[in-house]
Amino acid sequence: MKIGHFSxxxxxxxxxxxxxxxxxxxxxxxxxxCPGWSPMPDGKKNVVILGCSHTFGQGLNDxxxxxxxxxxxxxxRCRYWNLAQPGSSGDKLVRTLYGSEKIIYPxxxxxxxPDWSRRERFEKSPINLSGGHETLRHETSEQDLANFxxxxxxxxxxxxxxxxxxxxxxxQESYHEHIEGLNILKEQTIRNCWPWWHKTRQRDLQSxxxxxxxxxxxxKHHQRFAELFLERFGPKLK
Length: 238
Description:
This protein is an alpha/beta fold. The protein has one domain (about 1-235): 3-Layer(aba) Sandwich (Rossmann fold), CATH 3.40.50. Helices cover about 25% and strands about 15% of the residues. It has five helices and eight strands. The protein has helices at about 55, 65-70, 90-100, 140-160, 220-235; strands at about 1-5, 5, 45-50, 80, 110-115, 120, 125-130, 165-170. It has a four-stranded parallel β-sheet, with helices on one face. Strands 1-2 form a two-stranded antiparallel ribbon. Strands 6-7 form a two-stranded antiparallel ribbon. The radius of gyration is 17 Å and the shape is globular. It starts with a strand and ends in a 5-residue tail after the last helix.
């Protein structure tokens, strides 16, 4: 099925090698940082990971981002698909998930939610808008929350319909208090998990863990975040 920009067998346009930074990453032919799915391999449960640039691993090598560390867990039974894209909003994460339904056939869904002020808007082609964009200047925190909850509902409903386990975590800010009762990695985010022992410095971009672009969190953040996620949910990834 395909209606407008929504499909159950077509993923949104990926990062792609045409992007100025695309050559820095190992991408499949669809522009995603994971193996190709045509043809789709058999024999394992497919784990789909959705997120923004922090989950894509912007500024990091293939073996340095948290999805890589996560993907080393239970490799005999699980196959991991990093469908994160830089700049993604919660809206786009949902559209990506639904687009993967008849391509990757997710059995487990992990969503690392970006800032909830982001939105996806549709003109001739979809565009992702950050919270500071002029188009969004009248949006309020109440609207951000409502939009976030809408997207959580769509993800959870997809999981219910397709008998998938669903897990939620957060890239920068945690909104866990609004979705209690679900599978959530609560206070820990990619942003605040390193240095994990230092309460007053957690929110700063530390010089000892910075990606090569100088804007994203480095390998220590990603290693620690993967450890925290697996401590919480590792036994369920099977």
